[in-house]
């Protein structure tokens, strides 16, 4: 090999050989520097700088204008893996095209989010695909395949799955611990990751901010298991700021060097911390090396995985990289795909015959989202924009169109003066060279005159929209939102609410004879000062304002509704205001102001169709009972309005299916922090509540029948379920055939039913199709056996049912599984892990040690925790049960109940939560046979395991 072409530049060598050569040429400081998100260039070797982390959830994010596809939950509503593969490919191609113009665009893409949507109040609900883990995994596999491409050597992009593990709440997300029992881990959480990883489609994973069972996710011992699911090295990228949390907000380890060392040993490769400043990370890793907390081998292992990813991205073979010229950006094909995806994401919830709309009817398009295309934190800048109003106006079948946003028109009075928006508050900032909006437009501009006060005749009429939970926005006649700039002054400057800190949201807080206008981002009231309206200084009182309603939005909506043949009312959320990253929702209900709008519209015109455009489900039983038609779509991206108009007019028959249960009431939900689906009776799998709309629900403009369901076993043991689907209606449409399984009389709690397969089929009127769905019975019908720490398929009878939703099952076949039962727990031989319980109340899982294992403790030391372990085989008899327990401070109590004997014991203080000592429990007589064991814990006690003598 010549000096001009070292081995790492030779594409004939394996990636492993090339990585080893390059690592050998890098100095230790250079290798350490590779582990920060912003890895510097190594000019002497011709190695360029590299950044991990390009967001691409439903289009290229934050780097300029790009095609914006529906939100991930909307893509989930399509139930169409092939569509998601095409969307992923389009996004990956735009990443490449944008990188060719701007090297800041990264090829290591942090998408998709594969957390199953366990709880609909999660602020980041918009980022996931479905509450079902199998469906999530299948859609994530398709999307990552599109992002990565199908070349045998090189990747178009390197997708990273988010957020490992059990991450479905935002409140205290960096300090709260998720209690995750083994069955929920194995049956619900891991399957969402298993699909894309085992398919080799994903290049990495990102740990979440939260702790699981008391241990930070960035120290998860399960990362090693994930790496065994695929052949290529799996890169683990930390979440932003999370490495500092380990010794910071989490206080898990004593200092930052120890925190980074522990996460590196656990498997984290790339540290996302301190923005572009790599110095703190490099200093902490270097200190860890000097203190002997890590070795060079740990650095090399992580650096090697990162370099392997870069080799597979073609960085070192630009002349061979098949994706280097893959510069498709805002193409006609991508625009068409965005429209198709938005169409397939529309779910028809209810229809009493109002839809599709008859041609030529006049339409009142009403509501706060009627003329909006809302983006979210992970959206790119729009290349095109079609709102519902735009879509209906331009559709040839629409008659006359009127519009009103339903906002209240108000004036604000401060004493004898009135709030005035200056005349120069109109022009938006110019687009930058890449076509993205100037960030100052969202953060609050300072180049415009601030709001002031003046006489009544100069008062400005503002449009007030109440988004619920006390959040309101105010906009000037020119459409610009009131925003608070860095200097604290209010200006009508923002095109939309947005940014990481949303500066355009206020609360009207009753005070005296009026209200304080409180700026939500700062928590500070607005005061009228000589320089204009601004947020008050600390300790300064706000100015009391009187809100004068010039015209109520409900009155305007009622007037417009009464004058039209039909009403299309568009309600929902703004993703930057109502639930988002860092902020969970508090309720499923519509904001009261929006509830009033649909009631006003319906009272004025019974032919009112309610379109809910939102990032999550709502509880709308009253609307469902009253209105003739309801639809839901997630925020559908740039073509949302065109797609909705085509669906409303019947040009496209709706075929979206709900990826989540829509509950009827908040009371049907468990606590958002309760991740134990089994005990909490959560999701469609376990919920005993009657849903408003079930998982998988979605109507069509035609009707489908499911006939002649058969199930047969193929030579390899695969089960083949076949059903004939017939379009018995008068228009073409798509049906999503859904196959569910359920266990008959299971010994352990199992879901009511669970999705094991689905297929989307397009049928003309009168057409029939014999569809086939294959399932592997061990994987599809089995569950995690905590008694033996393995996956098992219990013998017995199962139901396989096909239908149009999880509650609309049209045909069922029984299937019997032969085989030997799993048998009782061999506790005499192997002991009993405390975390392997069958039933639980009042307990949580905690970390057995900082590096591995789980223990059990009372969730509240003042409330006893109870655990039950079924089928304990006592063999020749047991006279003593030894409980290995720790009580760091004051000690506690435990009770062992076995057979008809119940014995309590005191747990002495051990001085350390990880120092487990034996607590012998002597039984008054020998216990024999196969028995249930009950363990009750009181106080600050941790239990690791039990042994039997």
UniProtKB/TrEMBL annotation:
Residues 735-806 form the Fibronectin type III-like domain. One of its GO terms (molecular function) is hydrolase activity. It holds the Pfam family Glyco_hydro_3_C. InterPro entries: Actin-crosslinking, BXL, Fn3-like, Galactose-bd-like_sf, GH, Glyco_hydro_3_C, Glyco_hydro_3_C_sf, Glyco_hydro_3_N. Keywords: Hydrolase, Signal. It comes from the Bacteria. Belongs to the glycosyl hydrolase 3 family. This is Glycoside hydrolase family 3 C-terminal domain-containing protein. It comes from Streptomyces chisholmiae. The lineage of its organism: Bacteria, Bacillati, Actinomycetota, Actinomycetes, Kitasatosporales.
